[in-house]
Amino acid sequence: MKKTWIRAALILLLTGGLLYFFFRSVESWEEVFRHLTDVNVFFAVLMVVLVPLHFITRAWRWNLLLKHEKRGISFYNRFAANAAGFTVTMIFPGRLGEIARPFYLAQKEDMAKGFVLGTVVVERIFDIFTMCIILGLFLISQPLYASIFQMEQQMYSRLYFWGFVGLGLATALLLISVSLYFFRDKTLKVINFILRPLPDKWTIKIIMMVEEFIQGLKFFHSLGNLLAYIGMSFVVWLGIIFYYWICFFAYNIEISFFFLFPYVFMLMVGASIPTPGMVGGFHYFSKVGLTSFYNLGPNLAVGMTLVIHTVQVVVTCLIGYAILWREGISLFQAKSLGEKVNS
User: Fold this and answer.
1) CA-CA distance, 301 to 129, in Å (whole number)?
2) At what angle do helices 298-327 and 331-339 cross, to 10 degrees?
3) pTM for the predicted model, two decimal places
């Protein structure tokens, strides 16, 4: 109980600190409130329609990993798992939705939970890799667009820093995952040794979960599957970038699709901070991107960020709630799926 309160206090402190840095540059609250409603209606509606796009593309991509264990998995179940998982992430801290969605699908499709969890780890590794590659394309192309798109050298330095951090993290996770798969027996021996002090029933349960998890990495065995998955990862993230491009049009800001790359990368960094609903991290990194990359005023950047985030949260939660209600599952039951990995 004490650890729970300490964790909650730290998350609250982190969220509050990020929101402080987000709001502190506001010059006119009246202007911020005006920007909350001063949007192009057509593109605002299109924003709402496009929110679930990444659930669809993620569901298609997910099947490339899942089919090695079970073929014919319902597209609806894959879509529903994503929607329910992201809803849990939007409401609760700690990104519990990342665990809830594979466990939700495993429960619906009668699959090994460890296997489905392994596929989500692969997904996150390639999400980071894909956005690092997209950012890299933007950075190395600088000489080609320097005359039409300029930003401070300090921001280029930040992008290089976060790009290398993301690339390093993704590479480390990839190497660990590949090692788990190709050196399975040695891995299990090491884990067995580490778990010796624990009761036998716990050891058996953990080893079973690890074996299932390793099975979720089996797609690494095929170069064709790997290339197909990389291709689908670009489809997922280019679709996400397209959504944010439409958000700019909603504020009558015309900008090249290509120049959205660094902004969306910054959003990915902010969204990775484990606050409830991405609050704070998303907001601060969005404002930094909007003011530094595109020279938008702080009032517009704050108002625009609030609208973009609110649309995402509301539409995601409505879809997630509708799916959970249809399945007879409460939000707290879905949250408990994300906590089972720690039980």
Assistant:
1) 28
2) 100
3) 0.87
